[in-house]
Amino acid sequence: MRDHTKLRAFELADQVALAIYRCTAHFPREEQFGLTSQMRRAAVSVPSNIVEGCARDSGSDYVRFLDIAFGSLRELEYQISLAHRLGYLSDYDPLAAHITETSKVLAALIRSLRLPKT
Questions:
Q1: Measuring CA to CA, which residue among 82, 58, 73 is closest to residue 106?
Q2: Residue 52 C-beta-side C-alpha neighbours within 13 Å
Q3: What confidence tens digit (pLDDT) does each residue in 16-61 have?
Q4: How many Å apart are CA 11 and CA 51, to the nearest integer?
Q5: If you write DSSP's letter for every residue of 36-98 in order, what string do you get?
Q6: Can you tell me the distance from the alpha carbon of 47 to that of 72, in angstroms, rounded to the nearest whole number?
């Protein structure tokens, strides 16, 4: 079993999830069951899938869960863009930069695990 707490990708994803919860707390009430809920689910999905992947025995399962985490992160990237364009999100640039950094770190981890072992 792998230790997810030692992964930079997990650390960044956890920070993104916290940031999303904080910023969506100020979204309009009518978005509570719409965009707010969708963004929070996607944000929590990223570190959750990293943790679940780390708990798997097989390398292919590990990568599969990291792929799911990456997909959720890209989904969240669109959702923060939408929230910003709707005028719900004022701190878009730092959040977008944090998500981009997380995407790069997670993608690099996935790539490294897919490299043939020599």
A1: 73
A2: 13
A3: 999 999 999 999 999 989 999 999 999 999 999 999 999 998 999 9
A4: 11
A5: HHHHHHHHHHHHHHHHHHHT-SSHHHHHHHHHHHHHHHHHHHHHHHHHHHTT--S-HHHHHHH
A6: 10
Fold of 4-114: de novo design (two linked rop proteins) (1.20.1440)
User: Could you give the CA distance from residue 37 to residue 58 in angstroms, rounded to a whole number?
Assistant: 32
| Residue 34, token pair as written in the block | 């719409």
| Per-residue tokens: 49 | 């899938």
Q: How far is residue 60's CA from residue 78's CA, in Å, rounded to a whole number?
A: 27
Instruction: Say what angle helices 8-24 and 35-54 make with each other, to 10 degrees.
Output: 160
**pLDDT greater than 80 at residue 118:** no
